[in-house]
Amino acid sequence: MSEEPAEGLLDDLETGIISIEKRRWKYPGAKEQAIRTELGLSPIAYYQRLNTMIDNPRIIAVEPALTRRLREHRDHA
User: Which Pfam family, any one of them, does this sequence belong to (predicted)?
Assistant: First the structure.
């Protein structure tokens, strides 16, 4: 049995990361605090996982606009 979710579906961590990326953050540090409390990840681990996710064809298929925006931001930063 594969540990990879079925095509088009996200695992819990991927869903959490996508949820955090879709939010607007009003205060400095609020996103990093949410990463720690909601996902139990350090910000460094979060961004490493996010960078892997936005190049993953399965994630791109589920969230094309978000992944495109995040790749453009990463590639032009």
Answer: DUF3263
Compute the C-alpha angle 71/76/77, nearest 5°: 100
- Predicted TM-score (pTM) of the model is 0.84
Tell me, yes or no, whether 54 lies in a domain.
Answer: yes
Domain presence at residue 77: yes
Asked, for residue 63, whether it belongs to a domain, the answer is: yes
Q: For residue 56, give Cα distances in angstroms to 1, 40, 48, 50, 70.
A: 21, 22, 13, 10, 12
Whole-angstrom distance, CA of residue 36 vs CA of residue 54: 20
One digit per residue, the tens of pLDDT, for the chain of length 77 reads 444 544 458 999 999 999 999 999 999 999 999 999 999 999 999 999 999 999 999 999 999 999 999 999 999 87
